[in-house]
Specification:
5-stranded antiparallel β-sheet; mainly beta; 54% strand
Amino acid sequence: MIILRLILPGIVFFLMVGFLVPLQAEEAFRETRIEIGTNKEGEIFFPASVSTNASDSTHFAYLIKRNDQFRVNIDGIEGPAYDRVAKGTPFFNHDGSRDVYIAYKGKKALVVSNKKEQPLFDGIDRPMFSPDGKRLVYRAKSKDKQLLVEDGKSMGGFDSIMGTPVFSPDSKHLAFIGINKKNVSVILNNRVIMKGCENIKEITFSPDSKHLAFAVKRNGLWFLAKDKKTSKKGYQNIQNFLFSPDSSRFIFVAQSDKDIFIVENGIESPAYKTVAPPLFSPDSRRLAYPGLLNKGWQVVLDGKKGPIFKQIASLKFSPDSRRFAHAGVTKADKGAMIIDNHEVRTYDSTGQPVFSPDSAHLAYRVRKGNQWFMVVDDKPGKPYDNIRMPFFSADSATIVYPAIRSGKMFMVTNDMDGEPYLAVGLPWFAPRDGHLAYKAKDKDGWMVVLNGIEGKERFDGFLTNEPIVFEDRLCHVLAVIKKDLHFFRYEVSF
C-alpha cells in the first residue's frame, strides 16, 4: 500500500521517483495519456487522499466533496455519498485486488471494501490487509467493548485490544492482545492461547510462519513465550524480538539491572549500557548489533567486537552475506565507513553503505570540505555540491545517483553526468533488461526521461513516492495537470 501526496505549485504536490536506462540516440518512444480523473465544477478535491496500489500502481483512488457529502472515486467509479470519510483512507492491498475506506453515517462508522458496506460501529481504527491481501481486519468499538473485526465478522468483546493485530507471513494466522478486567491475553486464530498476564507485547511470527513468540509479564518480570513454552528466567525488560530469515534462529534484547544484552537459546551475550536493534545476514548465519559502552558505540559482528565510535548507523550485509559495512562518527566528529568491522575509512561526512546485487561492489557518498563524492570500491568519483544515495542495476553493471552542481540537478550514470534540470527524482531500473527512467523538471514542467531521452509530454506534477512501473516494453506513472486537476496514466512504449 502507498498513500501519496502530490506536488503542485500552490496546492501540495511534488516530484517523484522514476526509472531510466541508456538507449541509442536514434531510438524513440511513443507517449500516451489516459485520463483517469478530474476535478469537476462544484467539487472539492482532496490531494492528500490520493492512493494507488503498491505493486504496479494500476489502481487509483481519491476523495471528493460535493453538496456537503463525501464520495470516494476508485478507478473512475464514484461510490455512494457519506457524511465523512476517515483521514488516511481510501487505500488498496498490495496488488490492488481490494480497496478499503472508513465512512461515517452520522456518528456511526463503517468500513467499505470493494463496494460492500460492513456493519456500523461507534468507532473504527485503521483497517489492515494480510500479507497476501485477501484478509481485512480492524479494531472496532461497540458501546463499552472493543472488537476485532475480519471482513465484517466480529471476534470477542474486550475492555481493550492492545496494539496492532499481527498476521503471519503466510496470512494463515492472526494474533492480537486482548484485555478484560486487567487480565491480558493472547488470542491466536480466535482462540485464547495465553491468559492471566500482567502484560504482553512483541507478538512476532517467524518468516516461515511456523513459530510464534511474544513477551509475557508476570510478577513484575518479563518472560519469553515461544512455541507454547515459557522461559524459566525472567528479566526487567525484553524487546526487539527477531527471527533469522530462514526461521532457524531467534534472539531478543534483555535487561537485568543496568545490563542490557542479546539472548539466543538462553545464552546471554556480553552486557552493554544499551543495545540497538540486531541484524541477521541474509543467509541467517551471521549476526551484528551495536552496543554502547562508557566510551562509545561498537558493533559486535559474529561475536567479535569492532572499533569504538561516537555514533553508529546503517548496518548492512551484502546479499551473499559475506561482506558487512556500517557508517559511524568518530570522536573527532568525522564521518566513517567501517568495512567488515575493522577497516575504517574517514571523511568529513558519510552516507549509508549500498552493496550491488552481486555483492561485488560497495558504494557510499562522502563529503570532503564543501564537496560530495560517490565512493565505489574505495575509489572516489567526481566532486559535486551534493549527491543522493546510489542505486545499482539488477546485473550490478550500472550505478546511478542524482547530483547537484551550480544549482542544477542531473543523473550520474557510471560516472557520466546527464543533462541538467531544475530537479530530478530518484532513479529506477527495469527489473530485467536494464532500462532506466527518472522524472525531471525543466522550465516547461515535469517529464519522464527514459534511457537518456526526454519525453515530450509535460505535467505539473507526479504522485509522491510512486515509482515508474515497467511492464515488458512499456512503463507508466500517474501524472497531474493543475488546471481542473486532471489525473493521467502516462505511458511510454519503447
